């Protein structure tokens, strides 16, 4: 093509391009007067119930978390490089995004920021939450801790020597570019897999996030770090003990999707069950239900997991990890409320 024609066409397009009318839109310029953080946030702090409903945690938990984040930001300045936000405002935006399942556009209007500006703090705060709370919320269990978990399962579900309930959850995402069918799962949507182990209190003991949606729970389990540690026997799991005249190992419990191993128990196949096997399956199902309850509480509190996440895959992984760590953080401090169990 003639270079002159290309040049003239380019000049015409540039000329016709709409000029920016404002350096800051008038709506956004009123941020300090009418933005959510400067108005509603301060009003909510006067009512703990409303605050909990809006941010999914109590005022005391919010303030504690904010202080922890400030310490993390002070240690790692790269997380807030180029930001003029207060840590409290960044946390406010992130909790609202995770808790309500709203979009960046909705944050843009309510917090009176540009769409791009509103989207920037979320991934960084999610990364900071994981760095800040990982050791506290996901400590490596000691032998004594494994025994306590097993005792709680025995009391609540009548299943002995159970050290956790394991299952996978498909978290919806918009298909990443050029990913083909890697993230397309058997439920006919695109996802990444959250593999989790929960205790009888519906807190997560371990999570693995980021496997392709097409992979089965058993495959994800065999690829995760926990499986390798189980194989190497480096998790301080107690040795098998006698229960009612039978020596039983300490085990995780899962559904039929998982293979039977020395440390993972699955139900008997449904066909031709004897009464003893049916009773065993019933007890195992009660214990296994704890991780399903955990997923239910997680998704009903952090409703970003109710919809497909329209973000890059690595950001989606950070969001899921942040939701899981917030689940444990709030569960320990504020317990569970009835509305958390509602869909």
The total number of structural domains is: 2
Largest sheet: 5 strands, mixed
Sheet with the most strands: spatial strand order: 3-2-1-6-7
Please provide the count of β strands. Answer: 7
Poorly predicted sequence stretches spanning 5 or more consecutive residues? none
Query: What general outline do the C-alpha atoms trace?
Result: globular
Q: Can you give the mean pLDDT?
A: 88
Query: From the helix content, strand content and strand pairing, which structural class follows?
Result: alpha/beta
Succession of helices and strands:
HHHHHHHHHHHEEEHHEEEEHH
In percent, how helical is the residue content? 40-55%
Tally the helices: what do you get?
Answer: 15
Overall radius of gyration: 24 Å
- The separation of the N and C termini measures 59 Å
Beta-strand residue fraction: 5-15%
InterPro entries: HARBI1-like, HARBI1_dom
Protein name: DDE Tnp4 domain-containing protein
Family: Belongs to the HARBI1 family.
Organism: Acanthoscelides obtectus
Describe the structure.
With 343 residues, the protein is α/β, with parallel strands linked by helices. It folds into two domains: 24-135, no CATH class; 139-341, no CATH class. It has helices at 3-16, 26-29, 31-34, 40-44, 48-55, 59-75, 87-100, 104-110, 115-119, 121-137, 143-157, 217-223, 225-232, 275-301, 313-334, and strands at residues 162-172, 191-198, 204-212, 241-243, 246-248, 251-253, 264-265. The strands form two sheets. A five-stranded mixed sheet has the order 3-2-1-6-7, sandwiched between helices. Strands 4-5 form a two-stranded antiparallel sheet. Strand 4 and strand 5 (246-248) form a beta hairpin. Helix 6 packs across helix 10 (121-137), helix 7 (87-100) crosses helix 10 (121-137) and helix 10 packs across helix 15 (313-334). It is globular, with a radius of gyration of 24 Å.
């Amino acid at each position: 093509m003639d270079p002159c024609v290309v040049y003239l066409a380019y000049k015409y397009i540039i000329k016709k391009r709409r000029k920016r009318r404002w350096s800051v839109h008038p709506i956004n310029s009123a941020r300090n007067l009418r933005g959510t953080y400067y108005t509603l946030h301060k009003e909510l702090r006067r009512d703990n119930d409303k605050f909990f409903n809006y941010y999914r945690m109590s005022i005391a938990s919010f303030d504690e978390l904010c202080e922890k984040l400030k310490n993390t930001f002070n240690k790692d300045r790269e997380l807030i490089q180029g930001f003029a936000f207060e840590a409290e405002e960044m946390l406010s935006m992130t909790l609202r995004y995770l808790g309500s399942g709203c979009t960046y556009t909705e944050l843009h209007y309510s917090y009176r920021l540009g769409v791009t500006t509103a989207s920037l703090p979320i991934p960084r705060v999610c990364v900071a939450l994981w760095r800040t709370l990982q050791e506290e919320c996901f400590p490596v269990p000691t032998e004594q801790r494994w025994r306590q978990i097993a005792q709680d399962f025995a009391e609540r579900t009548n299943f002995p020597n159970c050290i956790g309930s394991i299952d996978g959850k498909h978290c919806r995402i918009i298909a990443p570019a050029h990913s083909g069918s890697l993230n397309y799962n058997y439920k006919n949507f695109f996802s990444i897999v959250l593999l989790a182990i929960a205790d009888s209190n519906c807190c997560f003991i371990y999570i693995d996030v980021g496997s392709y949606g097409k992979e089965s729970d058993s495959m994800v389990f065999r690829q995760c770090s926990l499986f390798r540690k189980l194989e190497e026997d480096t998790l301080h799991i107690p040795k098998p003990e006698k229960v009612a005249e039978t020596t039983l190992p300490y085990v995780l419990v899962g559904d039929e999707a998982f293979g039977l191993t020395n440390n993972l128990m699955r139900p008997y196949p449904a066909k031709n069950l004897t009464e003893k096997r049916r009773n065993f399956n019933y007890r195992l199902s009660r214990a296994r239900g704890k991780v399903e309850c955990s997923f239910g509480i997680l998704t009903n509190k952090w409703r970003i997991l109710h919809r497909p996440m329209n973000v890059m895959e690595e950001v989606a992984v950070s969001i899921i990890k942040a939701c899981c760590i917030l689940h444990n953080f709030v569960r320990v401090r504020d317990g569970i409320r009835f509305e958390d169990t509602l869909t």
